[in-house]
Design brief:
Length: about 210
């Protein structure tokens, strides 16, 4: 029974597939590993020799060297990018916009829409500090004002980062507008919190 059910080569031991040696009447069957298996076996040995020479024999770049050169590339790109942003947002770029009527008009529009609720329609201050006086949490220069608008104020104080809500141009223009408010006379100026705000000498050539 079952004698004729399996006729593949493994169930039909042929004489020529048996090894000649024998021990205690047990003979060994020649059953070689498949070709693909051998290919992987030898391939991995050859690869390991190449790997050893390449990474440890000083022939190629080590993983550490590859990492370092990649990181150098990254910081180069980052520095280039920062330079580009700084060129547009830095004091130099902002200074060019000071006093331009179209910049002040568009800055005022942004201020009225987004900032007046907290800083008052004329910058006299409400929840947010008075932007017309000489007491400031942060320095009242163009770069710092831009920085507060771009990054937001201190944690939990209520001044969010406007980057994203406003585009770069709007933030630049409202910066120039805010700076122009300093020294003006608002209707209901909020008193300075002298414990929290530092005094800055009045700017020259008040408008
Ligand atoms: C939700 C209320 C609120 C809105 C809206 C708001 N601010 Fe502020 N702002 C604050 C508060 C509160 C502070 C104080 C932050 C701190 O103490 O760090 C502040 C601080 C500032 C400062 C720094 C003042 C200083 O003394 O250093 C500037 C500049 C400023 N805001 C500009 C703006 C502009 C421009 C907008 C509109 C795009 C705006 N703020 C919208 C609440 C607001």
């Amino acid at each position: 029974m079952g004698q004729h059910e399996h006729h593949d080569e493994f169930s039909q031991p042929s004489k020529d597939r048996l090894f000649v040696h024998e021990f205690d009447g047990i003979q060994e069957y020649d059953n070689p590993m498949p070709g693909w298996w051998k290919a992987i076996f030898w391939g991995s040995i050859i690869f390991s020799v190449w790997y050893l020479i390449h990474y440890h024999g000083g022939m190629g770049e080590s993983i550490e060297q590859e990492y370092n050169s990649a990181m150098t590339q990254v910081s180069k790109l980052q520095a280039e990018y920062n330079k580009k942003v700084a060129a547009r947002t830095g004091t130099k770029a902002l200074k060019k916009l000071v006093g331009k009527p179209e910049v002040l008009a568009s800055g005022k529009k942004v201020f009225t829409t987004y900032c007046a609720v907290c800083h008052g329609p004329d910058g006299g201050g409400k929840v947010g500090p008075n932007l017309t006086d000489d007491y400031w949490v942060n320095a009242p220069d163009l770069k710092t004002i831009f920085g507060v608008i771009y990054n937001g104020g201190r944690e939990g104080k209520g001044m969010i980062s406007w980057n994203g809500t406003l585009n770069l141009k709007q933030m630049q223009h409202v910066t120039v507008y805010v700076q122009s408010l300093r020294g003006t006379k608002p209707k209901n100026p909020k008193a300075a919190d002298k414990k929290d705000e530092k005094y800055f000498a009045p700017k020259k050539g008040k408008k």
